[in-house]
Amino acid sequence: MRLFFTLALLGSLAMSLPATAGERFTVLLDWFINPDHGALVVAKQRGYFDEAGLEVDLVEPADPNAPPKLLAAGQGDVAISYQPQLYLLREADLPVRAVGVLVDQPLNSLVSLEGGAVAAIADLKGKKVGYSVGGFETAVLGQMLEGVGLSMDDVELVNINFALTPALLSNQVAAVIGAFRNFELNQLSLNDAKGRAFFPEDHGVPAYDELIVLAQEARASDAKVQAFLAAVERASQDIAADPQGTWQDFIKEKDGLDDDLNRLAWKDTAPLLARSVALNADRYRRFADFMVERGLIEVAKPVDAYISAQ
To answer: 101 and 159: one domain?
Structure first.
């Protein structure tokens, strides 16, 4: 009888434990692991997810466009994406919301080579500009061109399919749009070249969050999601306080991370990571208006259609 009551008590205690204890938590990444994901990796390596009761898997995508769709289908707990992409996802009625931010400033840039034919945006007239993804990238380019009295008709677009650095080095194009300021500039330097970057937010494009965390709209307030975000924020603050120490944690995640490009990119990325995962509603409202103005979406939805309540 005593054994029966002991087992019953243990069962009762187990049922009263937090639902998040030891639970698997799948993060669908936007790309292969790189310094942009620094806070995710450091939180994992330093045991912050474990302390939150989460067994976190960081899943690199076979198709970078798939994670938000997989998330909406219930095949992950959160997905990493981009603020500009969020508006397109919601335009397509995908039931996802932004719940936090990893990089709270643009990384996207227009890049040319130092010493080349493009020393200013106005120099792009009559030149070839490489891009990888039509839509947002070309809309950003259009806004930047209009600021110097040019239009998209004044340049020739060339789809270079993510080969931004090789296209510049081979002079296939005079500039590229969509280059990340913390990566492509370092790739150029490793090839004994120097890039000149023009930042969209300095040329008429509203500031936006580059890397964000998405959740299913029905689960945006789940305790698991909130515990995950708290751990990420803690790791991001660690990186700001100790970039070199956290770099050592980052490179433990998997083989191949400790290379020259990641080392340089980590140095440039650490100051760009969001200190807080909280979202700025005004920023999301303003950028929705920009997406409408550039013809990327038809109508701006209320801000709570894009971000979860903070």
So the answer is: no
